[in-house]
UniProtKB/TrEMBL annotation:
This is SRPBCC family protein. It comes from the Bacteria. InterPro entries: Polyketide_cyclase/dehydratase, START-like_dom_sf. Transmembrane segments: none annotated.
Length: 152
């Protein structure tokens, strides 16, 4: 299993950044995310505990369930199903106020399931690709919340 963390400061208030990142449909502002939808509402909030999110990226499809929800400071999720198949231990986004806005830390622990060399495949190919997509989604959040370039 590989753990990956992507960090970015978004120049917006923590509550706004949390709301943007919790709302999965915003992820399509990245060209790497082809579709994103809320498949099931959460217990106490649309994207709260129990919510199911479905994402289609250029590299695959992911069905996620929200397992912890603490607005505006963080939420956890697990990938229940994916194609290509992967094992997933934890996904977490945390949000903290900084002098420049909001620090977002997006962490995931995963491994591509493959008959041979799963660890190497994850480390060499999947981890850099996931890092790039996470970074681009956070760039899109920054652009959307600050009116910056790259906003679509």
């Amino acid at each position: 299993m590989e753990t990956l963390t992507v960090r970015r400061v978004v120049e917006a208030p923590v509550a706004d950044v949390f709301d943007w990142c919790a709302t999965t449909t915003h992820y399509t502002r990245s060209p790497y995310v082809l579709a994103a939808r809320l498949a099931r509402r959460g217990a106490d909030a649309p994207y709260g505990v129990g919510a199911v999110r479905v994402h289609t990226w250029l590299i695959g499809r992911f069905r996620e369930r929200i397992t912890a929800y603490d607005p505006p400071y963080g939420f956890d999720y697990t990938v229940e199903r994916s194609f290509p198949p992967a094992r997933h231990r934890l996904g977490r986004m945390t949000f903290s106020e900084t002098s420049g806005g909001t620090l977002v830390e997006w962490t995931t622990t995963f491994e591509v399931r493959a008959p041979f060399a799963a660890a190497a495949l994850t480390r060499v190919f999947a981890k850099p690709v996931v890092a790039h997509v996470f970074g681009d989604i956070l760039r899109a959040a920054d652009a959307a919340l600050t009116g910056g370039a790259g906003h679509r």
